Amino acid sequence: MLAVSGREGLSRALFPLGDAPSKAAVRAEAERRGLPVADKPDSYDICFVADGDTRGFLQRSLGVQEGSIVSPDGEVLGTHGGYFGFTVGQRKGLGLTRPAADGRPRYVIQTRPTTNEVVVGPAELLQRTVVDGSDLVLLDQPDSLPDASAGRT
Predict the structure, then answer these.
(1) How many whole angstroms separate alpha carbon 33 and alpha carbon 39?
(2) Residue 49: helix, strand or coil by DSSP?
(3) Fewest C-beta atoms under 10 Å: which of 29, 123, 131, 137?
(4) Nearest alpha-carbon partner for 115 in 77, 66, 72, 71
(5) Every domain of the chain and the residues it spans
(6) Among residues 43, 2, 19, 44, which one has the least CA distance to residue 29?
(7) Using an 8 Å Cβ cutoff, are 120 and 100 in contact?
(8) Are strands 67-70 and 117-121 parallel, antiparallel or unpaired?
């Protein structure tokens, strides 16, 4: 949400907890005031999904869309109820019944909306050295920016 607000929108935004020294201090103040969120667990998911089941919410909203979980070389490893229920980097909740041949954890390395496939593989396949993007919004001007053409041939 903040990324699309732009300088103008952010210049008028108020962040009431902006000066709080820590999350623990905010929780202590909430507890002192008797607020029910004082001991609410942290959420790393969509905030408006009350039960925390983002995948379930998406399947209820979009319907089950069965697809394949595949290895980087295309081997079908399992099935899923919709690529939209997975996030690149995700390790848990893949629903695979057999471990990787090398016994190492598998991670979502790509989702393919057009084919409804989820590609899983070893952590090394998540590593990136370059990020391509467009329509960059700089909310603060850094001292320097890397040369976008550096390292390209």
Answers:
(1) 12
(2) coil
(3) 131
(4) 66
(5) 21-52, 64-126
(6) 19
(7) no
(8) parallel
CA 21 from centre of chain: 26
Length, in residues, of the chain: 153
Q: pLDDT (tens digit, 9 = 90+) per residue, 42-91?
A: 766 677 777 778 888 888 888 889 999 999 999 999 999 999 999 999 99
CA–CA separation, 149 and 125 (whole Å): 23
Residue whose entry in the numeric block shows the structure tokens 């960059």: 136
The pTM of the full predicted model, rounded to 2 decimals, is 0.63
User: Whole-angstrom Cα distance, residue 14 to residue 108?
Assistant: 36
Query: What is the three-class DSSP state of 153?
Result: coil
Pick the CATH number of 64-126 from 2.30.30.280, 2.30.180.10, 1.20.1260.10, 1.20.1250.20: 2.30.30.280
Residue bearing tokens 């595949």: 70
Find out whether 80 and 93 touch, Cβ atoms under 8 Å: no
